[in-house]
Amino acid sequence: MSLRKHTAGDYRDLALLAILWSGAFALTDLAVETMTPAWSVSIRMLVSAAVLAPFVILNREPLPRTRKMWGWMTALALCGDLIPFFLLSWGITLITSGLSAILVGIMPLITLILARIFVPGEVLTATRIGGFAVGLIGLVIVVGPDALENTPGEGTPLLGEMLVLAAAFFFAMNAIIARRAPPAPLYSKACLTTGIAGIIMLPLAWAEAPLDIDAITVQSWIAVIVLGALPVGYATVVYFRVIENAGPSFMAMTNYLVPVIALAVGALFLDETITLHALVGLTVILGGIGLAELRR
Fold this sequence. Notes:
The chain is mainly alpha-helical. Helix content is 75%, strand content 0%. The protein has one domain (8-292).
């Protein structure tokens, strides 16, 4: 097992990443009010690349010069952006959002297993497995036990569950790919992966429906631009930094924190109520993270 002790900066980046991703839910709802999900994904990815490009230039970060490195970038774009978000969007139409959140919450456990196989220094210890399992239990408590009782709607609930689990697997695999990929400058890597994802998504979005600019409101444009700049653009930089410094298993714990922070945002800005089971779940999640971080 790696003996590196996680620093205050690692925990800061973990919290920052969770905050950035938590805000994406409300912004996505605003974005898709007047534009299709496919166009929303493509535009936010391209905005991210455009926002990060000046930092690449200012820092004089080089672009990949080999086909192998471009292959790594494409793999990160597909496994981290296009495929999982497509599967997740499809799955959520077939099952409840609460059940989806729980199923995606399995991603840290998948990451832990994959990291043990593919990442040198990542060891499957009893405390780490126990910590991640406790975190998942906390996530179930936060979302609420009613989420486990999925109400079938139009479509097949089992298919929806399989799609969301597949998305969780791709998110986990992307963390492993990011760890195993050859070193690359942070801004360059983030800019290229989001840019490649946005370009690949363009023809798919157009095939679904041409972009109706006149029908898109100013609110939706603002939401998708902010999405591209922060929860996608800056968050991608932080994501790669956490994986490089602390490892994929550590980064995966954001999946337990995101629902908690989303609840807090709802309480602060949308007058939503934080229930007792949400507070209990938060306590359990933090306890699970502490258990997973125990060192001999």
